[in-house]
Amino acid sequence: MTMTNLVPALPFWLSLGLVPIVILAALWGGWSLLLVPAATWWLFTVLDRLTGKEERNADPATPEGRLGWYKAITLIWFPVQFGLLCWLLWYVPRAAHLGGLERIGVFFGMGVISGAVGINYSHELMHQKSRLERWLADLLLASVMYSHFRSEHLRVHHIWVGTPRDPVTARYNEGFHRFFPRVLVQCFRSAWKAEVAMLARRGRPWWDRANPYWRYAALQGGMLLLALILGGWTGLGLFVVQAFVAIWQLELVNYIEHYGLTRRHLGDGRYEHVLPRHSWNATYKASNWLLINLQRHSDHHYKPDRRFPLLQTYTEEEAPQLPMGYPVMTIAAMIPPVWKRIMNPRVKAWRRRFYPDITDWHAYNKALNPTPGH
Prior knowledge:
Elements: H1 6-9, H2 18-28, H3 35-51, H4 68-91, H5 100-126, H6 131-142, H7 149-160, H8 176-201, H9 212-257, E1 265-267, E2 270-271, H10 285-290, H11 297-302, H12 326-333, H13 336-354, H14 362-365
Antiparallel strand pairs: 1-2
Helix pairs in contact: 2-3, 2-5, 3-5, 3-12, 4-5, 4-6, 4-9, 5-6, 5-9, 7-8, 8-9, 9-12
Subcellular location: Cell inner membrane
Main location: membrane
Protein name: Alkane 1-monooxygenase
Protein backbone atom coordinates (compact mmCIF):
# COMPACT_ATOMS: atom_id res chain seq x y z
CA MET A 1 0.00 0.00 0.00
CA THR A 2 1.84 3.11 -1.27
CA MET A 3 1.73 6.24 0.86
CA THR A 4 3.96 8.78 -0.83
CA ASN A 5 1.46 10.38 -3.21
CA LEU A 6 -1.81 12.19 -2.75
CA VAL A 7 -4.23 9.66 -4.25
CA PRO A 8 -4.20 7.03 -1.44
CA ALA A 9 -4.62 9.79 1.14
CA LEU A 10 -7.50 11.55 -0.64
CA PRO A 11 -10.35 9.56 0.99
CA PHE A 12 -9.25 10.92 4.37
CA TRP A 13 -9.75 14.45 3.02
CA LEU A 14 -13.50 13.88 2.60
CA SER A 15 -14.09 15.75 5.86
CA LEU A 16 -13.42 19.01 3.98
CA GLY A 17 -16.63 18.37 2.05
CA LEU A 18 -18.61 19.04 5.22
CA VAL A 19 -17.51 22.69 5.29
CA PRO A 20 -19.53 23.90 2.26
CA ILE A 21 -22.53 21.96 3.56
CA VAL A 22 -22.50 24.02 6.79
CA ILE A 23 -22.12 27.21 4.76
CA LEU A 24 -25.12 26.27 2.61
CA ALA A 25 -27.15 25.51 5.73
CA ALA A 26 -26.39 29.01 7.08
CA LEU A 27 -27.21 30.67 3.76
CA TRP A 28 -30.40 28.74 3.01
CA GLY A 29 -31.82 27.65 6.38
CA GLY A 30 -34.90 25.42 6.35
CA TRP A 31 -34.49 21.83 5.21
CA SER A 32 -30.78 22.36 4.45
CA LEU A 33 -30.11 22.24 8.20
CA LEU A 34 -30.53 18.46 7.96
CA LEU A 35 -27.64 18.10 5.53
CA VAL A 36 -24.80 17.97 8.05
CA PRO A 37 -26.21 15.22 10.30
CA ALA A 38 -27.39 13.39 7.18
CA ALA A 39 -23.89 13.57 5.67
CA THR A 40 -22.02 12.47 8.79
CA TRP A 41 -24.35 9.83 10.21
CA TRP A 42 -26.27 8.47 7.23
CA LEU A 43 -24.14 9.13 4.15
CA PHE A 44 -21.06 7.49 5.61
CA THR A 45 -23.15 4.56 6.81
CA VAL A 46 -24.42 4.07 3.25
CA LEU A 47 -20.87 4.44 1.94
CA ASP A 48 -19.75 1.78 4.43
CA ARG A 49 -22.22 -0.62 2.85
CA LEU A 50 -21.10 0.32 -0.67
CA THR A 51 -17.34 0.31 -0.09
CA GLY A 52 -17.19 -2.56 2.37
CA LYS A 53 -14.33 -3.33 4.73
CA GLU A 54 -10.61 -2.62 4.61
CA GLU A 55 -8.73 -5.40 6.35
CA ARG A 56 -5.31 -4.80 4.84
CA ASN A 57 -2.62 -3.21 6.99
CA ALA A 58 -0.02 -0.66 6.02
CA ASP A 59 3.57 -1.34 6.94
CA PRO A 60 3.91 0.08 10.47
CA ALA A 61 7.59 0.78 9.76
CA THR A 62 6.70 3.28 7.00
CA PRO A 63 9.00 6.32 7.47
CA GLU A 64 7.45 9.55 8.76
CA GLY A 65 8.54 11.36 5.61
CA ARG A 66 6.22 9.25 3.47
CA LEU A 67 3.08 10.25 5.38
CA GLY A 68 2.98 13.92 4.38
CA TRP A 69 -0.40 13.93 2.66
CA TYR A 70 -1.99 12.07 5.57
CA LYS A 71 -0.53 14.44 8.17
CA ALA A 72 -1.54 17.48 6.12
CA ILE A 73 -5.28 17.04 6.65
CA THR A 74 -4.83 17.08 10.43
CA LEU A 75 -2.53 20.10 10.24
CA ILE A 76 -4.84 22.26 8.13
CA TRP A 77 -8.04 21.35 9.96
CA PHE A 78 -7.79 23.86 12.78
CA PRO A 79 -7.53 26.94 10.50
CA VAL A 80 -10.36 25.56 8.35
CA GLN A 81 -12.65 24.85 11.33
CA PHE A 82 -11.70 28.08 13.10
CA GLY A 83 -12.35 30.16 9.98
CA LEU A 84 -15.75 28.52 9.50
CA LEU A 85 -16.68 29.01 13.15
CA CYS A 86 -15.70 32.70 13.11
CA TRP A 87 -17.69 33.33 9.94
CA LEU A 88 -20.76 31.63 11.41
CA LEU A 89 -20.44 33.64 14.65
CA TRP A 90 -20.40 36.85 12.63
CA TYR A 91 -22.99 35.91 9.99
CA VAL A 92 -25.72 33.88 11.71
CA PRO A 93 -26.73 36.40 14.46
CA ARG A 94 -27.16 39.01 11.71
CA ALA A 95 -28.98 36.74 9.21
CA ALA A 96 -32.56 38.03 9.02
CA HIS A 97 -33.75 34.95 7.08
CA LEU A 98 -32.88 32.62 9.95
CA GLY A 99 -35.26 32.13 12.84
CA GLY A 100 -34.16 31.24 16.35
CA LEU A 101 -34.46 27.48 15.86
CA GLU A 102 -32.70 27.71 12.49
CA ARG A 103 -29.77 29.51 14.08
CA ILE A 104 -29.50 26.78 16.69
CA GLY A 105 -29.75 24.24 13.86
CA VAL A 106 -26.79 25.78 12.03
CA PHE A 107 -24.65 25.59 15.15
CA PHE A 108 -25.87 22.08 15.87
CA GLY A 109 -24.39 21.14 12.50
CA MET A 110 -21.22 23.05 13.33
CA GLY A 111 -20.98 21.12 16.59
CA VAL A 112 -21.34 17.80 14.77
CA ILE A 113 -18.32 18.75 12.63
CA SER A 114 -16.22 20.17 15.46
CA GLY A 115 -16.95 17.03 17.48
CA ALA A 116 -16.86 14.21 14.94
CA VAL A 117 -13.95 15.73 13.01
CA GLY A 118 -12.33 18.47 15.10
CA ILE A 119 -12.02 16.62 18.42
CA ASN A 120 -11.07 13.46 16.59
CA TYR A 121 -8.24 15.27 14.79
CA SER A 122 -7.16 16.87 18.08
CA HIS A 123 -6.96 13.33 19.45
CA GLU A 124 -4.54 12.39 16.69
CA LEU A 125 -2.50 15.56 17.18
CA MET A 126 -2.20 15.38 20.98
CA HIS A 127 -0.48 12.00 20.72
CA GLN A 128 2.34 13.34 18.55
CA LYS A 129 5.69 14.71 19.70
CA SER A 130 5.66 17.92 17.65
CA ARG A 131 4.90 21.08 19.66
CA LEU A 132 2.97 22.47 16.67
CA GLU A 133 0.69 19.46 16.57
CA ARG A 134 0.06 19.54 20.32
CA TRP A 135 -0.76 23.24 20.15
CA LEU A 136 -3.19 22.59 17.30
CA ALA A 137 -4.81 19.92 19.48
CA ASP A 138 -5.16 22.44 22.33
CA LEU A 139 -6.69 25.04 20.02
CA LEU A 140 -9.22 22.58 18.62
CA LEU A 141 -10.25 21.51 22.11
CA ALA A 142 -10.49 25.11 23.33
CA SER A 143 -12.88 25.87 20.47
CA VAL A 144 -15.34 23.38 22.03
CA MET A 145 -14.58 24.23 25.68
CA TYR A 146 -13.18 20.77 26.42
CA SER A 147 -9.49 21.40 26.88
CA HIS A 148 -9.12 19.02 29.82
CA PHE A 149 -9.83 16.14 27.45
CA ARG A 150 -6.13 16.19 26.58
CA SER A 151 -5.13 15.59 30.21
CA GLU A 152 -7.89 13.06 30.83
CA HIS A 153 -7.09 11.11 27.68
CA LEU A 154 -3.31 10.99 28.05
CA ARG A 155 -2.97 10.80 31.84
CA VAL A 156 -6.04 8.73 32.75
CA HIS A 157 -7.73 6.88 29.89
CA HIS A 158 -4.69 5.34 28.23
CA ILE A 159 -3.30 4.20 31.57
CA TRP A 160 -6.43 2.95 33.30
CA VAL A 161 -8.78 1.94 30.44
CA GLY A 162 -10.93 -1.05 31.34
CA THR A 163 -10.59 -0.46 35.10
CA PRO A 164 -12.77 1.39 37.65
CA ARG A 165 -10.31 4.30 37.54
CA ASP A 166 -11.20 5.18 33.92
CA PRO A 167 -14.44 7.20 33.78
CA VAL A 168 -14.95 6.72 30.03
CA THR A 169 -14.92 2.93 30.03
CA ALA A 170 -18.68 2.50 29.76
CA ARG A 171 -20.00 -0.10 32.17
CA TYR A 172 -22.01 -3.09 31.06
CA ASN A 173 -25.72 -2.23 30.90
CA GLU A 174 -25.02 1.47 31.53
CA GLY A 175 -27.15 3.46 29.08
CA PHE A 176 -25.60 6.47 27.36
CA HIS A 177 -27.95 8.89 29.12
CA ARG A 178 -26.51 7.80 32.47
CA PHE A 179 -22.95 7.59 31.14
CA PHE A 180 -22.90 11.12 29.67
CA PRO A 181 -23.58 13.22 32.80
CA ARG A 182 -21.34 10.90 34.82
CA VAL A 183 -18.31 11.40 32.58
CA LEU A 184 -18.82 15.16 32.28
CA VAL A 185 -18.16 15.42 36.03
CA GLN A 186 -15.73 12.56 36.56
CA CYS A 187 -13.47 13.28 33.58
CA PHE A 188 -12.84 16.86 34.71
CA ARG A 189 -12.03 15.67 38.23
CA SER A 190 -9.82 12.78 37.15
CA ALA A 191 -7.89 14.94 34.68
CA TRP A 192 -7.30 17.59 37.36
CA LYS A 193 -6.14 15.01 39.91
CA ALA A 194 -3.78 13.45 37.36
CA GLU A 195 -2.15 16.79 36.55
CA VAL A 196 -1.86 17.79 40.22
CA ALA A 197 -0.31 14.41 41.04
CA MET A 198 2.22 14.84 38.26
CA LEU A 199 3.15 18.29 39.55
CA ALA A 200 3.48 16.89 43.08
CA ARG A 201 5.91 14.24 41.87
CA ARG A 202 8.06 17.10 40.55
CA GLY A 203 7.79 18.95 43.84
CA ARG A 204 5.46 21.65 42.48
CA PRO A 205 2.08 22.89 43.85
CA TRP A 206 -1.15 22.79 41.88
CA TRP A 207 -1.00 26.53 41.17
CA ASP A 208 2.39 26.23 39.44
CA ARG A 209 2.41 27.73 35.95
CA ALA A 210 3.33 24.29 34.57
CA ASN A 211 -0.24 23.15 35.34
CA PRO A 212 -1.84 22.96 31.86
CA TYR A 213 -5.20 24.02 33.32
CA TRP A 214 -3.93 27.61 33.24
CA ARG A 215 -3.36 27.26 29.50
CA TYR A 216 -6.73 25.58 29.08
CA ALA A 217 -8.50 28.42 30.92
CA ALA A 218 -6.74 31.11 28.90
CA LEU A 219 -7.51 29.48 25.55
CA GLN A 220 -11.13 28.79 26.42
CA GLY A 221 -11.59 32.30 27.81
CA GLY A 222 -10.18 33.68 24.58
CA MET A 223 -12.65 31.63 22.54
CA LEU A 224 -15.59 32.87 24.61
CA LEU A 225 -14.44 36.47 24.25
CA LEU A 226 -14.03 36.04 20.49
CA ALA A 227 -17.55 34.62 20.22
CA LEU A 228 -18.91 37.62 22.14
CA ILE A 229 -17.04 40.12 19.97
CA LEU A 230 -18.09 38.51 16.68
CA GLY A 231 -21.69 37.63 17.48
CA GLY A 232 -22.70 39.46 20.63
CA TRP A 233 -24.66 37.61 23.29
CA THR A 234 -26.48 35.62 20.61
CA GLY A 235 -23.17 34.52 19.16
CA LEU A 236 -21.91 33.55 22.59
CA GLY A 237 -24.98 31.40 23.20
CA LEU A 238 -24.65 29.75 19.79
CA PHE A 239 -20.96 29.09 20.42
CA VAL A 240 -21.91 27.25 23.62
CA VAL A 241 -24.48 25.22 21.63
CA GLN A 242 -21.85 24.02 19.17
CA ALA A 243 -19.43 23.23 22.02
CA PHE A 244 -22.04 21.12 23.82
CA VAL A 245 -22.93 19.23 20.63
CA ALA A 246 -19.23 18.58 19.95
CA ILE A 247 -18.71 17.22 23.49
CA TRP A 248 -21.80 15.04 23.11
CA GLN A 249 -20.36 13.65 19.86
CA LEU A 250 -17.04 12.89 21.55
CA GLU A 251 -18.60 11.12 24.50
CA LEU A 252 -20.86 9.08 22.25
CA VAL A 253 -17.72 7.71 20.61
CA ASN A 254 -16.04 7.19 24.00
CA TYR A 255 -19.11 5.26 25.10
CA ILE A 256 -18.92 2.93 22.10
CA GLU A 257 -15.18 2.29 22.11
CA HIS A 258 -14.95 0.23 25.31
CA TYR A 259 -18.54 -0.57 26.31
CA GLY A 260 -18.55 -3.50 28.73
CA LEU A 261 -14.90 -4.40 28.08
CA THR A 262 -12.96 -4.73 31.33
CA ARG A 263 -9.44 -5.86 32.22
CA ARG A 264 -9.07 -8.84 34.51
CA HIS A 265 -8.53 -7.92 38.16
CA LEU A 266 -5.46 -9.82 39.37
CA GLY A 267 -5.96 -9.00 43.06
CA ASP A 268 -4.70 -6.22 45.35
CA GLY A 269 -5.78 -3.51 42.88
CA ARG A 270 -3.62 -4.94 40.07
CA TYR A 271 -4.97 -5.46 36.55
CA GLU A 272 -3.77 -7.27 33.46
CA HIS A 273 -2.06 -5.24 30.72
CA VAL A 274 -4.20 -3.59 28.07
CA LEU A 275 -4.74 -6.01 25.18
CA PRO A 276 -6.41 -5.75 21.74
CA ARG A 277 -9.46 -7.45 23.27
CA HIS A 278 -10.21 -4.34 25.38
CA SER A 279 -11.47 -2.10 22.54
CA TRP A 280 -14.31 -2.38 20.05
CA ASN A 281 -13.16 -2.14 16.43
CA ALA A 282 -14.71 -1.64 13.01
CA THR A 283 -13.04 -2.14 9.64
CA TYR A 284 -15.52 -0.33 7.40
CA LYS A 285 -13.72 1.88 4.88
CA ALA A 286 -15.87 5.00 4.67
CA SER A 287 -16.38 5.62 8.38
CA ASN A 288 -12.65 5.09 8.89
CA TRP A 289 -12.01 7.72 6.22
CA LEU A 290 -14.18 10.19 8.14
CA LEU A 291 -12.69 9.24 11.52
CA ILE A 292 -9.08 8.80 10.32
CA ASN A 293 -8.96 5.14 11.37
CA LEU A 294 -10.19 5.76 14.92
CA GLN A 295 -12.14 2.52 14.59
CA ARG A 296 -8.85 0.62 14.55
CA HIS A 297 -8.97 1.36 18.21
CA SER A 298 -7.17 -1.64 19.65
CA ASP A 299 -3.99 -0.75 17.81
CA HIS A 300 -4.26 2.86 18.95
CA HIS A 301 -4.12 1.65 22.56
CA TYR A 302 -1.19 -0.60 21.70
CA LYS A 303 0.80 2.20 19.99
CA PRO A 304 -0.81 5.54 20.98
CA ASP A 305 1.60 7.71 18.97
CA ARG A 306 1.29 5.64 15.78
CA ARG A 307 0.05 7.85 12.94
CA PHE A 308 -3.48 7.08 11.83
CA PRO A 309 -2.63 5.68 8.35
CA LEU A 310 -0.38 3.07 9.99
CA LEU A 311 -2.89 1.78 12.55
CA GLN A 312 -3.36 -1.96 12.23
CA THR A 313 -6.55 -3.94 12.17
CA TYR A 314 -7.12 -7.16 14.13
CA THR A 315 -9.06 -10.32 13.46
CA GLU A 316 -12.17 -11.20 15.43
CA GLU A 317 -10.15 -13.84 17.29
CA GLU A 318 -7.88 -11.08 18.65
CA ALA A 319 -10.24 -8.13 19.19
CA PRO A 320 -14.03 -7.65 19.33
CA GLN A 321 -15.70 -6.23 16.23
CA LEU A 322 -18.73 -3.96 16.01
CA PRO A 323 -21.50 -5.00 13.62
CA MET A 324 -21.44 -1.56 11.94
CA GLY A 325 -19.29 1.58 11.87
CA TYR A 326 -19.29 4.27 14.55
CA PRO A 327 -21.74 6.65 12.77
CA VAL A 328 -24.67 4.27 12.92
CA MET A 329 -23.58 2.82 16.27
CA THR A 330 -23.76 6.28 17.84
CA ILE A 331 -27.37 6.49 16.72
CA ALA A 332 -28.06 3.12 18.35
CA ALA A 333 -26.33 4.32 21.54
CA MET A 334 -28.85 7.15 21.84
CA ILE A 335 -31.63 4.54 22.14
CA PRO A 336 -30.61 2.37 25.13
CA PRO A 337 -33.00 -0.55 24.48
CA VAL A 338 -31.73 -0.82 20.90
CA TRP A 339 -28.12 -0.50 22.00
CA LYS A 340 -28.43 -3.16 24.69
CA ARG A 341 -30.19 -5.53 22.32
CA ILE A 342 -27.31 -5.19 19.85
CA MET A 343 -24.36 -5.04 22.22
CA ASN A 344 -25.15 -6.97 25.41
CA PRO A 345 -25.10 -10.36 23.66
CA ARG A 346 -21.77 -9.40 22.10
CA VAL A 347 -20.30 -8.47 25.48
CA LYS A 348 -21.45 -11.79 26.90
CA ALA A 349 -19.90 -13.64 23.95
CA TRP A 350 -16.68 -11.68 24.49
CA ARG A 351 -16.63 -12.76 28.14
CA ARG A 352 -17.15 -16.41 27.24
CA ARG A 353 -14.34 -16.28 24.70
CA PHE A 354 -11.66 -14.44 26.66
CA TYR A 355 -12.62 -14.99 30.32
CA PRO A 356 -14.50 -18.30 30.58
CA ASP A 357 -13.23 -18.82 34.13
CA ILE A 358 -14.90 -15.67 35.52
CA THR A 359 -18.39 -16.60 36.67
CA ASP A 360 -19.35 -13.55 38.74
CA TRP A 361 -19.25 -10.29 36.78
CA HIS A 362 -21.12 -8.12 39.27
CA ALA A 363 -18.04 -6.18 40.47
CA TYR A 364 -16.97 -5.59 36.87
CA ASN A 365 -20.45 -4.47 35.81
CA LYS A 366 -20.68 -1.90 38.60
CA ALA A 367 -17.00 -0.82 38.67
CA LEU A 368 -16.73 -2.16 42.23
CA ASN A 369 -13.35 -3.84 41.85
CA PRO A 370 -10.49 -2.09 43.72
CA THR A 371 -9.29 1.12 42.13
CA PRO A 372 -5.79 0.63 40.68
CA GLY A 373 -2.90 2.88 41.59
CA HIS A 374 -4.03 3.55 45.17
